[in-house]
Design brief:
The protein is an all-alpha fold and 94 residues long. Helix content is 55%, strand content 0%. It has a domain of 53 residues.
Length: 94
């Protein structure tokens, strides 16, 4: 059995190879964080709640959340962040 001897590379070739490998890993989702479960999933996973209870809790939270705020398109910042946060919470209920 012969030992594999890689072709010597310049530092630039090594950097290019690493950059390409990192790009491919990113495209393949290697660095993606697992999506956290929804509130419904978290409640149901506890094993002590039936699906109708999970549905009820999610519905109560949905009604409890405050309304989004109105703002002008040129007003970026807090109000937009507030609305984005509320939307994120609503998406993670179920």
């Amino acid at each position: 059995m012969t030992d594999f001897q890689p072709k010597p590379q310049t530092p630039e070739e090594v950097a290019d190879g690493l950059r390409d490998a990192m790009r491919q890993a990113k495209e393949d989702g290697v660095f993606d964080k697992p999506k956290p479960p929804t509130l419904y999933d978290a409640l149901y996973a506890e094993g002590r709640m039936h699906s109708f209870i999970c549905d009820t809790v999610c519905e109560i939270v949905k009604k409890w959340l405050p309304d989004e705020v109105e703002y002008e398109e040129n007003e970026l910042g807090y109000n937009q962040g507030w609305n984005d946060c509320l939307e994120e919470i609503r998406e993670k209920l179920r």
